[in-house]
Amino acid sequence: MTLKALVLCCTLKPSPAESSAELLGREVLTALADHDVTGEVIRVVDHDVKFGVTTDEGGGDEWPAIRAKLLDAQILVVASPIWLGQPSSVCKMVLERLDAELSETDDQGRLLTFGKVAAVAVVGNEDGAHQVTASVLQALNDVGFTAAANASTYWVGEAMKGQDYKDAGPKPDTTGAATKTLAANAAHLAHLLAGSPYPAS
């Protein structure tokens, strides 16, 4: 069975600016392809996503179209940079929009996100990768997503320096290994949940 993944890139930079968060998100997609998972990357700031906590904030809100792709996928990867030790403001906005999923259920009372696997990719030039991962995975779990073992990958540059992941030259084996593990475990869990959904509430 071929599964789908959606990477929501939460960089602050609109296209066509280069983004380290997008680069790492695409590397996750490449690794997922080895496990019968296809997918795409959406750079959230390229879309008119409104602030709010509903599935559709109206007024040209483009979240509903992104949400439709999210609901069609079995794996969600949130790729975020670190700013001041925190997930980006775009990432936090995405999590706020996902809060609406707590009110959306199927005919058996299950959240529509049940059975979907969450993973996180983080980049930054300061400490904070673990905090960002913990915050994002906890929020995604709160709204119904399931995290696989080692469901994160990250790269953090030297403190007080300005080098980005996209400019780091040869990538560290540690990040590459974490990305491969994330992909293998997320795909494995997604395949299992696709074949054996969570029970009705």
Automatic annotation (TrEMBL):
<dbReference type="InterPro" id="IPR029039">
    <property type="entry name" value="Flavoprotein-like_sf"/>
</dbReference>
<feature type="domain" description="NADPH-dependent FMN reductase-like">
    <location>
        <begin position="4"/>
        <end position="150"/>
    </location>
</feature>
<dbReference type="Pfam" id="PF03358">
    <property type="entry name" value="FMN_red"/>
</dbReference>
<dbReference type="InterPro" id="IPR005025">
    <property type="entry name" value="FMN_Rdtase-like_dom"/>
</dbReference>
<dbReference type="GO" id="GO:0016491">
    <property type="term" value="F:oxidoreductase activity"/>
</dbReference>
<protein>
    <submittedName>
        <fullName>Flavodoxin</fullName>
    </submittedName>
</protein>
